[in-house]
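Sync notes, pocket subgroup
Present: LS, DG
LS reminded everyone that the earlier model was apo-only. Rerun requested with NDP included. Inputs:
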Amino acid sequence: MAISFDLTGKNALVTGANTGIGQAIALALAQAGADVAVAGRSDPTETLDQISETGRRAVSIKADLSSVEPIDHIIEEAVSRLGQVDILVNNAGIIRRSDILEFSEEDWDAVLDTNLKTLFFLSQATAKGMVERGSGKIVNIASLLTFQGGIRVPSYAAAKSGVSGVTKAMANELAPSGVQVNAIAPGYITTNNTAALQSDDIRNRQILERIPTGRWGKPEDIAGAAVFLASSAADYVTGHVLAVDGGWLAR
Ligand code: NDP
């Protein structure tokens, strides 16, 4: 059997794809042949234009993923405008920073709700169709803080560790139905999320010294891993958290 990364004939749903890693993933999935729906709260015009330039279909679904409330709407829209969802990429995420002793309940809930609760229930809703059809791929965007505690980001570390747990739990239960569930743990990637770190000369130098590859990751580095995990080349990969970190965790 030929190994294939081709996604022709597949439909993908990517959350938080108006910018950064999500945008690069949506474009890469389209370049690999998939039609793509993007779900998020901000204007995704740039992403939709990029997808359209590949000749694939691009669909925008307006949704605030800070709660589970829009999930039924997202699935209904994706199915009615695109068809079945074969690939789900849970990328939308936020981070809140504060000292442990000052950390607020609001910052705890906001990060857990967006990064973990919505991820699980959107996956659950999408997986129902996948299980019926006997195939599907779910790719969750985790973090190095899936494995490490970080500093001043307890809710983010908890949520991203939780992404690993949910990935493995879903992978176990859905494997017999032909659905693979994996996660990607990005290292330091140049997006809006990390703009402050990139422009802080001292922190930037400390980060670069710690990365064996000697450079920040690009959103495209994560997109390549997402295409692999979404493709039939990864049919025997499930329940895995793939670090794409320039060797950070190897050090
Ligand atoms: P961005 O801030 O560029 O992207 C985050 C995306 O999530 C945006 O599209 C944002 O939309 C969306 N989002 C956040 N909250 C909501 C919400 N309530 N409803 C809908 N969409 C929402 O950052 P990145 O591209 O860096 O982050 C993407 C993912 O990668 C996140 O899960 C992040 O935790 C993870 N990650 C990033 C790393 C990095 O170094 N950059 C490292 C490790 C993990 P909006 O524009 O509307 O806010």
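DG: The radius of gyration is 17 Å.
LS: The first strand starts at residue 11 and ends at 15.
Action: DG to write up.
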